[in-house]
Design goal:
The complex is a heterotrimer of chains A (243), B (351) and C (291). With 351 residues, chain B is mainly alpha-helical. Helices cover 66% and strands 5% of the residues of chain B. Classes of the chains: A alpha/beta (243), B mainly alpha (351), C mainly alpha (291). At the B-C interface, helix 1, helix 3, helix 4 and helix 11 of B face helix 5, helix 6, helix 9, helix 10 and helix 11 of C. The complex binds adenosine-5'-diphosphate (ADP) and magnesium ion.
Chain lengths: 243, 351, 291
């Protein structure tokens, strides 16, 4: 029996009294890969931001492993959760290597030697070795995004949140980032990915969630999602994508 | 864990602030009681016992303290007003020169800005004061220009009723807004009024000048130094505004064969104005605050009167400090509110 | 004729005892060396704490050289400091301290869990900013001795020094807070996603970016501070401008007032220009790979 990694129960969230998420329940199993799609402004980013506490929730509960996030107890240990943003958000004043080592060093988990070794092996993994002493500003968007992916893997997360990791990139850079992401998808992580790239979602996820206006409208296995859509809104959205 | 750390930090800081304030108040109390000082503002109504020579609102010895403060305040306002007008005009000219297509004109402006920005204002004030005192003639050798006299104590001018000035002050407005006919009409009227009105001329005596109106040499030195110094800052601010405008605008204007001055006046300035306005107002505020440096050359501005004369004479340090703080805070508060209204319009998104 | 050299000597050292002048010269020479070392530290990306230790160390060293007493050096009173050296040292003793203080206070203003604490601190520094520096100098010489224990005698120079530090600090805080606002919210989010928060976030993510963003504004504030040290003359300290006034009131030097003002003006111009040039170097060395 697959273990549940994340359990969201009736989660709602609001920003300045405006409801952003509406009664969302969701289960993510260990090592499961979930895609989230939906029109922009539908609350996709907000949904995954509640999981690592970037967006406080106003009601409901989120259980991650044994920890519980509620409205009154917002923060959780997010060292198990890695996140990649649409616009990389590397620290501009630190070199690539320092970007990777900063968080583990500050947590004092391992020796500096181990942390560095790990950083180099991750740079290797995202095909960026040799760039350790460069500053982010001197890298292309695709390179920066690959560094950002490596950075969030530094803390050895068990859950990975990817928020449109390729939308800010030029077409040729999308390819290099996607190949890195495909490599990730082979690993033992639970992954939630928001993306508009349907072919990528089709090939890499087990399950797809469709969202609109802060609600979860459907939640189906990936192959069923595109062949037997169960929701009107979802049908028109998929048709639009095909064109 | 992190939160509780911050809470401890806050509590410690609160205790520290509270402790420092109590200690200070008790020390202050000790001093006040030991030196038999009293604290209160009723002395403001008492007779001041000193004259202020150089004022726009008369203050004499038999008038109360508050009148002295008021005339100091008016002095500050007038210095600031003159300084702001001159500095803005000069700054504008310098900024336009800085963007001019001729290297010589450009470098004149650059050199001016570089020099006046990098020399302390107080050095400039004292320099102009010393210079004016040493180069202008004594009273008995005064330069005469018509009915006016220039001496090393000040400039003495014939005066008349202030109402006469109203049409003259409003004149530029009509010319700037291109109501030429009204302007010409008003000019004729004001010349008539000036001609027929009653004038009081300054009279040259053996050792002094009496009658008429005057700008003292301190006033002159202060206004000159403040204007020249602030002009360099204003020029920088305006130049920044001009540079924020896309060079396409300059090129378009050139393509339309508009002259440099006309381009600045009709194309660049209207666009640059909203960009540099907040910083410009901030410079005005600085100039007004810097007017307090007049105390170094004995000009009786607000600060000179309160902290200099009244404090020395009555020994009411705490009260005077309080008044100065309140007045400057109010001035600052209103200016800052206005500046931030201009620089943060409603449409900027707040997150 | 007059003795130009002794006049210049008076402008630069004032009433400082003759046999100890070498100490003052040494202290002044340390200032540009410190500036160069700072650029060196930034260039080699040394830790901020090393720069802090270096700064505090050099501050102590210059203090000890110019006014310290002890086994090796003869005692000189703080009030004997005078002339252009007083201006330069006052600026040097207030700029780094005020910056460090401002960085600390900004941490409280940004992170304090109690809003009222931030409010009170903000109000205090707003008040300082709204007053002209002369008024602060003037009042602090009067009121500081009253606020402290009567046994603790605060001289005018000490009062001026404290005032300059707090005055500069107030403006630096404003600059730092503006720079903090300029940091993109993505930075805060990715810091949080990586589990970096509190002091560690401030130290490793906010402060370096704040320092970088605020560098031009900081430098012009520092130049302002160098110029503002002349204001201590108004409270009767014998700084270079005060000494100049004294000099040109003497008959021998009376007619050369223009020359003396020009010399002093040039010296300040040179100092400020060098400070501005130093700022440009710092900006160049800390541009993090941008071209
Ligand atoms: N900081 C914010 N302030 C106000 N509204 C916000 C903010 N962030 C997001 N929203 C609103 O929340 C809704 C969902 O946003 P988001 O989750 O970013 O959508 P998506 O990622 O699906 O495009 C949108 O309507 C957006 O306008
Ligand atoms: Mg989004």
């Amino acid at each position: 029996m697959a273990k549940h990694k994340i359990i969201m129960n009736n989660v709602s969230a609001q920003i300045a009294d405006k409801a952003i998420l509406n009664n969302i329940s969701l289960r993510v199993d260990d090592q499961e890969h979930i895609g989230i799609i939906g029109p922009s402004g539908s609350g996709k980013s907000s949904l995954i931001r509640t999981i690592n506490g970037l967006l406080p929730i106003s009601s409901g509960t989120i259980e991650i492993d044994s920890q519980t996030i509620t409205a009154s107890q917002p923060s959780a240990d997010c060292s198990k959760i890695g996140m990649v943003f649409q616009d990389y958000a590397l620290f501009p004043h630190l070199t690539v290597l320092e970007n990777l080592t900063l968080s583990p060093t500050l947590r004092n988990e391992n020796s500096t030697r181990d942390i560095k070794d790990r950083a180099f092996s991750l740079l290797d993994k995202v095909k960026m070795n040799g760039f350790g002493n460069r500053f982010p500003a001197s890298l292309s968007g695709g390179q920066q995004q690959r560094i950002a992916i490596a950075r969030c893997l530094m803390t050895e997360p068990e859950i990975l949140l990817l928020d449109e990791p390729t939308s800010a990139l030029d077409p040729e850079m999308i390819h290099e980032v996607k190949s890195v992401l495909e490599g990730l998808m082979q690993s033992q992580l639970s992954i939630i990915i928001v993306s508009h790239d349907i072919s990528f979602i089709k090939t890499t996820t087990n399950r797809v969630i469709f969202m609109d206006e802060g609600k979860k409208l459907s939640d189906q296995a990936t192959d069923l999602f595109f062949t037997q859509p169960e929701n009107e809104r979802q049908i028109s959205f998929i048709q639009q994508l095909d064109h | 864990m992190i939160n509780s750390n911050h809470r401890i930090l806050s509590i410690v800081l609160w205790l520290a602030i509270f402790g420092i304030i109590t200690a200070m108040i008790s020390n202050l109390h000790l001093h006040i009681s030991r030196q038999n000082l009293e604290f209160g503002f009723d002395f403001l109504l008492q007779r001041s016992g000193f004259d202020i020579g150089d004022t726009w609102i008369t203050h004499q010895a038999n008038m109360p303290y508050w009148n002295a403060i008021l005339s100091g305040l008016v002095n500050t306002i007038i210095v600031a007003a003159f300084g702001i007008v001159i500095a803005t005009l000069l700054g504008l000219v310098l900024a336009i020169m800085a963007k001019a297509p001729f290297v010589i004109i450009k470098s004149v402006s650059d050199v001016y800005i570089n020099i006046f920005r990098n020399i302390p204002l107080l050095v400039q004030i004292l320099f102009f004061h010393t210079l004016l005192i040493n180069t202008l003639p004594e009273v008995n050798n005064a330069y005469t220009i018509g009915a006016s006299y220039v001496t090393n104590r000040g400039i003495y001018l014939p005066t008349t009723s202030p109402w006469v000035l109203i049409p003259i002050i409003t004149l530029p407005y009509f010319f700037i807004t291109r109501r030429i006919k009204t302007g010409v009409f008003l000019s004729v009227i004001s010349i008539g009024i000036l001609y027929f009105s009653q004038w009081e001329h300054p009279v040259l005596n053996r050792f002094n000048l009496s009658g008429g109106g005057s700008f003292s040499i301190e006033w002159l030195a202060l206004v000159i130094a403040l204007s020249l110094y602030t002009a360099s800052y204003i020029a920088e601010v305006m130049r920044g505004g001009f540079e924020a405008i896309s060079y396409h605008q300059y090129e378009t204007a050139r393509a339309l064969n508009i002259s440099y001055i006309k381009m600045m006046r009709h194309v660049i300035l209207p666009q640059a104005k909203p960009i540099f306005l907040p910083a410009l107002l901030n410079q005005y505020l600085n100039l007004t605050k810097n007017a307090s440096l007049g105390i170094a050359i004995g000009y009786p501005d607000f600060f000179g009167v309160t902290a200099g004369t009244i404090l020395n004479q009555s020994g009411r340090a705490l009260e005077m400090i309080f008044i100065v703080m309140v007045v400057y805070s109010l001035v600052n508060y209103f200016s800052i509110t206005m500046i931030s209204k201009i620089s943060h319009p409603q449409w900027k998104r707040h997150v | 004729m007059f003795d130009l050299l002794s006049a210049l000597d008076f402008l630069s050292f004032g009433f400082y005892p003759d046999i100890d002048k070498w100490r003052l010269v040494l202290a002044i020479v340390i200032i540009p060396m410190h500036a160069v070392l700072t650029v060196f530290c930034v260039k080699n990306r040394y830790r901020l704490s090393y720069c802090l230790v270096l700064t505090l160390g050099l501050q102590m060293l210059t203090l000890w050289l110019s006014i310290g007493d002890g086994a090796i050096l003869r005692s000189v009173k703080l009030d004997e400091l005078s002339g252009l050296c007083l201006n330069l040292l006052l600026a040097y003793w207030s700029i780094p301290l005020a910056t460090i203080l401002a960085a600390g206070i900004c941490f409280i203003l940004i992170n304090a869990s109690s809003k009222s604490l931030a409010y009170i601190l903000g109000l205090f520094f707003d008040l300082i900013r709204s007053l002209p520096l002369v008024t602060l100098l003037f009042f602090n010489t009067l009121i500081l001795p009253m606020l402290f224990n009567p046994k603790l005698i605060i001289t005018r120079l000490e009062a001026a020094w404290i005032t300059l530090i707090f005055f500069l600090c107030a403006y630096t805080i404003q600059i730092f807070l503006g720079a903090y606002e300029a940091i993109s919210y993505h930075q805060h989010e990715s810091a949080k996603a990586l589990g970096i928060s509190g002091w560690k976030k401030y130290r490793h993510i906010d402060l370096p970016q704040m320092l970088k963003h605020s560098l031009p504004a900081l430098i012009s504030t520092y130049i302002g501070m160098i110029k503002d040290t002349t204001l201590v003359m108004i409270i009767g300290l014998a700084d270079s401008l005060g000494n100049l006034q004294l000099l040109i009131s003497r008959n021998a030097y009376k007619h050369y007032y223009i020359e003396f003002f020009f010399i002093l003006g040039f010296l300040f111009w040179l100092t400020c220009t060098l400070c501005g040039w130093w700022g440009k170097q710092l900006e160049r060395t800390s541009n993090y790979g941008k071209t």
